[in-house]
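#lab-general

N.A. 3:47 PM
ok so I finally got the sequence cleaned up, no stray characters, all 301 residues accounted for. can someone with queue access submit it? mine expired

B.Y. 3:52 PM
send it over

N.A. 3:53 PM
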Amino acid sequence: MELRVLKYFLTVAREGSITGAANSLHLTQPTLSRQIMDLEKELGHKLLIRGKSNISLTPEGMILRKRAEEIIDMAEKTEAEFSSMKEIIGGDIYIGSGETDAMKYIAEVMKDIQNNYPGIKFHIHSGNAEDVIEKLDKGLLDFGLLIQPIDLSKYDHLTMPSKDVWGVIMRKDSPLAAKEKIEMNDLETLPIIASRQMSKKYSAESGFLDWFGEKFDNLNIAATYNLVYNAAIMVEAGLGYAVTLDKLIDTNPDNNLVFRPLSPRLESGLDIVWKKYQVFSPAAKLFLEKLNEKFKQTTEG
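B.Y. 4:20 PM
back already:
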């Protein structure tokens, strides 16, 4: 497979028609059709369902679209890394992160680097741990900022000095809003909007299983989420109470939502991770050096 042809295929998938894709690519329609048919022949699978007015993807076509996006992203990232080697310091740094207030420390390092090396650009991918780890393992990200627990067997890492505090986001008119802290018996019968971090897969290591005890399996999980912004919208709509980390949602006095920490207190640590034996671009190497400096100062301070 050629990158050029994969880009053709992605354009067809995006435009939904050979004609639209051909116009976008400045190709003739027969030329583009032939390229796509050759690709189908090479892979041994039909990729497109050709209708009268539009084109849709077969299941095999949907798989190829995902893989083609990853291949092209990796190729462009590789080209950018080699291009950056021609400069003293420049290039792109790709960082994946779960939702955490600790991102502010990373942002401070990013700002310091860009003040001195304006040729360095940062690209942030926000997602849950599984999403970030998948892209990290495929080489699409240089670093991941992840909330513990994490299987670190495949990674080198820096543990951040701060920890995130777990609690409950609720509406101001909720009876629980009058409390300073939320205990287990407060949540027993309430509809819970739960994060992925609360799933059974992670609960034992993260401390959730201990915190909820035997009542964990009997929680009334009304909805789940992987990004807290959507959870906050569900809370505001009255769907339930979101168990989440502090400082991710605006709870100033003008907002309709409030945060109350869990009691006993429940915290999660954070790690910046990267693949073992990673060969960094000059820009990514500089970023890691600045991270080490930052956290050494924070720890000593």
